[in-house]
Amino acid sequence: MSPSLASPPKHDRAVRLVLAHDYLTQRGGAERVTAELARSFGPASILTSFYSPQDTFPQLAEFSVRPSPLNWVPLFRRDPRLALPFLPFAWSLRRKVRADVVICSSSGWSHGLRVCRGAIKVVYCHNPARWLYQTEDYLAGLPFFGRLALKLLRPLLIVWDQKAAASADVIIANSTSVADRVRKAYGREAEVVFPPVTIDPSGVSEAVEGIQQPFFLTVSRPRGYKGAELLIEAFRKLPDHRLVVVGSDSIKDCPTNVTCLGAISDAQIRWLYARARALVSVSREDFGLTPIEANAFGTPVLVLRAGGFLDSTREGVSGHFIGEASIDEIVRAVTDFPKDWNRGAILAHADLFNASSFSKRIHEIIEKISKT
Question: What is the pTM of this model?
Answer without folding.
Answer: 0.84
